[in-house]
Amino acid sequence: MMMLQNILQINSGDLLRIGRKALYSILDEVIFKLFSTPSPVIRSTATKLLLLMAESHQEILILLRQSTCYKGLRSLLSKQETGTEFSQELRQLIGLLSPTVYQEVEEQKLHQAACLIQAYWKGFQTRKRLKKLPYAVIALQRS
Fold it and tell me: pTM for this one?
């Protein structure tokens, strides 16, 4: 696991180049190590590795949130011991997987899309008014 963590720290883009099945296998192995091993060193490394993977790649974070394979991951993580030396990483991982953070990100994307649509609409309206402006000036000068 340390080797995988070092690879991710050096070049995190390599993780998305592997196939989907291999990515599922890696995630399954890391999650298995996290929950099955009594050793706090291995559990700490697995937690840090999951956190690094989730933070560095949005696709992996979405996969961990929405895939049926990892449906109960957040609840299992919240049941872990919080008094350990890696509890900060554990809380960060739980925070990333929580639906409130995900909903906030989705709402922010929707807000940005709405602002973009409004900006295009206002620009269209302004251009339309500017096209009619010479005719209005001519009509005003004639009267």
Answer: 0.59
